[in-house]
Amino acid sequence: MNQITSSVIPSTLPGAAAKHLFQFHQQELDTLFDSLSCPADAQLQGLFRGTLFGISGINALPRWLRSPIYRLLASFINPWKGKSFADGEGANSWFNSKGSVSFGYYFTGSGDDEQGKPLLRLNYLHPRTPGLLQPIRGEARLLADGVWLARMRWQGKNNLTTLLYFTLEPAA
């Protein structure tokens, strides 16, 4: 397994952190996520551009094929543009980075993971979220200055399954 740490993540260009992570398997991303911290007073406000990668089904593909798929998902072709946050609530931004089309609402707040380590939670048990999406649980930790590494998890009856990873960077 490749050793990855937050110190090798480039953050000089928008999306650079995510593009660097396109090559890693989900287990490697899990290791990186577990090594990151989350400030005690962590709170996100405003619009954040999102970049998807580490998707469960795509992770089974070889690295040379997986990376171009993630690059395509990071382009204009992907309708999901990121997330918006305000006053402890948030929504996914669709079709444009201005956040005018929102779907998938959630509550935000700090919490701990299974090992008791702090993280920022995105809890989709929101009254405006369709019931099918309410088992989604998001978790985020600080990857680099202003860049968050986040993962979406599905809460099943007996387990929590990681579906995908993404980064969040402040929208310009």
Strand and helix map with partners:
Blueprint: H1 16-21, H2 26-35, E1 46-53, H3 63-73, E2 80-86, E3 89-94, E4 102-112, E5 118-123, E6 136-144, E7 147-155, E8 160-170
Antiparallel strand pairs: 1-2, 1-8, 2-3, 3-4, 4-5, 5-6, 6-7, 7-8
Low-confidence stretches: 1-8, 10-14
The structural domain count equals 1
| N/C terminus separation | 35 Å
Main sheet specs:
8 strands, antiparallel, barrel
Basic shape: globular
Q: How many helices does DSSP assign?
A: 3
Q: Radius of gyration in whole Å, from Cα?
A: 15 Å
User: Mean of residue pLDDT?
Assistant: 83
Oligomer: single chain
Elements, N to C (H/E):
HHEHEEEEEEE
How much of the sequence lies in strands comes to: 35-45%
Spatial strand order of the main sheet:
1-2-3-4-5-6-7-8
Pairing-aware structural class of the strands and helices? alpha+beta
How many strand segments?
A: 8
Helicity level: 10-25%
Give structural notes.
The chain has 172 residues and is an alpha+beta fold. The chain has one domain. Helices cover 16% and strands 39% of the residues. It contains three helices and eight strands; from the N terminus they run ααβαβββββββ. The protein has helices spanning 16-21, 26-35, 63-73; strands at residues 46-53, 80-86, 89-94, 102-112, 118-123, 136-144, 147-155, 160-170. It has an eight-stranded antiparallel β-barrel with strand order 1-2-3-4-5-6-7-8. The chain is globular. Mean pLDDT is 83; it is low at 1-8 and 10-14.
